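Hypothesis: this fold can be encoded by more than one sequence.
Test: take the structure tokens below, design a sequence, compare later.
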């Protein structure tokens, strides 16, 4: 059997604690920078300006004055239209399921910078308790399109 003895002095103990503390600080800084990168999206939208800022996070420039603002109730259970719409939401990390039966605000904005120059493009947001819970970018024309906030 092999026995090793180490004499720990106050100086060595203090140095060891300092090194452990420094490593913990470095780890905290690394973890905080990983969690606060440009990829973080704020879903807060307490007012119209908050909605405009939310859309700006995705690169969309919209008219500050909404085209329309109304109260809507998410059906419980989700009907076919809302179920299909919820698939778009799920693809962008959102989900309407927890909001079935709830009244939400629907706000519609005119998009000014759609990449290919398409006109009459709109941004739709559904807001519950000052938080964006769903939305899309679309054109209401007959052969229009609808997609999530990211153009990709």
């Amino acid at each position: 059997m092999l026995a090793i003895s180490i004499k720990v002095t106050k100086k060595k103990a203090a140095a060891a604690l300092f090194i452990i503390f420094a490593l913990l600080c470095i780890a905290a800084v690394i973890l905080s920078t990983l969690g606060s990168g440009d990829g973080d999206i704020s879903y807060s939208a307490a007012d119209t300006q908050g909605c405009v800022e939310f859309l700006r996070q995705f690169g969309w420039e919209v008219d500050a004055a909404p085209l329309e603002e109304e109260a809507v109730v998410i059906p419980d259970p989700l009907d076919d239209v809302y179920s299909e719409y919820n698939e778009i939401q799920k693809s962008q990390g959102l989900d309407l399921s927890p909001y079935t039966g709830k009244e939400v605000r629907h706000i519609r904005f005119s998009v000014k910078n759609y990449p290919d120059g398409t006109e009459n493009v709109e941004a739709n947001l559904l807001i519950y308790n000052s938080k964006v819970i769903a939305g899309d970018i679309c054109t209401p024309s007959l052969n229009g399109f609808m997609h999530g906030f990211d153009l990709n």
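DSSP finds three helices and five strands in the chain. Residues 32-38 have pLDDT under 50 and may be disordered.
Hypothesis status: open.
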